[in-house]
Design brief:
The chain has helices spanning 11-23, 63-73, 87-92, 94-115, 152-171, 193-202, 222-235, 252-267, 296-302, 310-323, 325-331, 335-344, and strands at 2-6, 28-33, 53-57, 77-80, 123-128, 175-180, 182-184, 207-210, 216-221, 241-244, 249-251, 278-281. With 347 residues, it is α/β, with parallel strands linked by helices. Helix 5 (152-171) links the parallel strand 5 (123-128) and strand 6 (175-180). The longest helix is centred in the N-terminal third of the chain and has 22 residues, at 94-115. It is globular, with a radius of gyration of 20 Å. Bound molecules: nicotinamide-adenine-dinucleotide and thymidine-5'-diphosphate. Residues 6-7, 9-13, 33-36, 38-39, 59-61, 81-85, 100, 104, 126-128, 157, 180, 182-183, 189 line the site of nicotinamide-adenine-dinucleotide. Residues 87, 182, 192-193, 196, 208-210, 215, 217, 252, 284 line the site of thymidine-5'-diphosphate.
């Protein structure tokens, strides 16, 4: 079976590619990635020489390139992760999100619809819980929760989800979808909360907490997301959506304080050192208050469980960043500095 994984050089994609290449030597895995600021082949050095793995550099927005690739390769299945993924960037540049997340997804759907030859093959779209909008103090997102996206990022992902379903209903294209909560783990680009704060604590830089730090996120270890994708890929039903979450809600400020405590201890600094770096800054525009996922369908229907407790996962994540200073130095040089200035200097 030949599987196209898009966005495989990014954070979650690299974990999914690694899992599929290592677990299923009988599958041919093709990783298609544009290598934007978020894509990095250093994330895949351990598997790049494997016989069942190929990398293709390319842009999913480039219609003729995508057509040619699908015509030539006749993929059996697609696992689609390529996206612009950061909410703050979507506020600064929404059109980029429409191009990659919406137009790019439709290009892939068209090419797959035209060139697929395996009747059992399907298009698996990896999406986010942010499409459901925000929750108040109680309740959880279920697969039946109406879509109500608030950020340009979540609006673009909601749109791409709708296109995937529309291709299923209109053209009978076999599809699967999953909507996952916030991920954390190794190889996470340091623009998102956890890796950004790990990097700043290491470098004694301020920790910019948006608003009062009372917003709530439901955190899942990235390898548990990859295992859920594996489970849904193999056991999920055609046309169905599965919510994936860690049942692990944290206010941002409680999470940041836990991170500070773990970092002080790992860096051998006196207790309370990192907490002094906390700086409350202007809130994000349209900041969703709370996300929480109900994964009952995935757990009971096809049998998935997260493997790690949060503190253990966070500790493993910090250890990875401390051991991989070179990775962090590479990704935070050049354009990262401009991004940081633009997002945080005037906040
Ligand atoms: P990421 O930003 O780390 O990686 C995205 C990857 O897509 C990068 O390798 C990038 O080079 C590639 N890419 C971007 N534009 C492209 C284009 N036009 N053509 C080809 N490749 C392109 O993102 P991530 O956090 O790994 O997220 C992966 C997927 O999972 C996304 O679809 C995202 O919406 C979804 N998701 C993320 C989270 C999370 O917490 N990070 C949670 C749920 C769902
Ligand atoms: P983020 O990691 O960007 O993920 P998402 O917005 O997709 O949930 O942010 C997680 C939470 O942390 C979110 O409530 C915004 C907050 N946050 C900060 O307080 N400061 C920061 O510098 C960043 C990047 C995020």
């Amino acid at each position: 079976m030949k599987i196209l994984i898009t966005g495989g050089a990014g954070f979650i994609g690299s974990h999914v590619v690694r899992r599929f290449v290592n677990t299923y030597p009988e599958y041919q895995i093709v990783n298609l990635d544009k290598l934007t600021y978020a894509g990095n082949l250093e994330n895949l050095t351990d598997i790049e020489a494997k016989e069942n793995y190929t990398f293709v550099k390319g842009d999913i927005v480039d219609q003729s390139f995508i057509e040619d690739l699908f015509e030539k390769e006749k993929f059996d299945c697609v696992v689609h992760l390529a996206a612009e993924s950061h909410v703050d960037r979507s506020i600064s540049n929404p059109l980029e999100f429409v191009m990659t997340n919406v137009v790019g997804t439709v290009n892939l759907l068209n090419a797959f619809k035209t060139h697929r030859t395996n009747p059992d093959g399907f298009f698996y779209h990896v999406s986010t819980d942010e499409v459901y909008g925000e929750l108040g103090d109680s309740g959880k997102f279920k697969e039946t929760t109406p879509y109500d996206p608030n950020s340009p990022y979540s609006a673009s992902k909601a749109s791409s989800d709708h296109f995937v379903r529309a291709y299923h209903v209109t053209y009978g294209l076999p599809v699967k979808l999953s909507n996952c909560s916030n991920n954390y783990g190794s190889h996470h680009f340091p623009e998102k909360l956890i890796p950004l704060f790990i990097n700043n604590i290491q470098n004694n830089k301020p920790l910019p907490v948006y608003g009062k730090g009372e917003n709530v996120r439901d955190w899942l270890f990235v390898e548990d997301h990859a295992s859920a994708i594996d489970t849904i890929f193999h056991k999920g039903t055609n046309g169905e959506t599965y919510n994936i979450g860690g049942n692990n809600e944290w206010t941002n400020i409680a999470l940041v304080k836990l991170l500070c405590k773990l970092m002080d201890s790992k860096l051998g600094r006196p207790k309370g050192t990192a907490e002094e770096l906390i700086s409350y800054v202007k809130d994000r525009a349209g900041h969703d208050f709370r996300y929480a996922i109900d994964s009952t369908k995935l757990m009971t229907n096809i049998g998935w469980r997260p493997s790690l407790q949060f503190e253990e996962g966070l500790s493993k994540t910090i250890d990875w960043y401390l051991k991989n200073e070179e990775w962090l130095n590479h990704v935070t040089s050049g354009a990262y500095m401009d991004y940081y200035k633009e997002q945080y200097e005037e906040r």
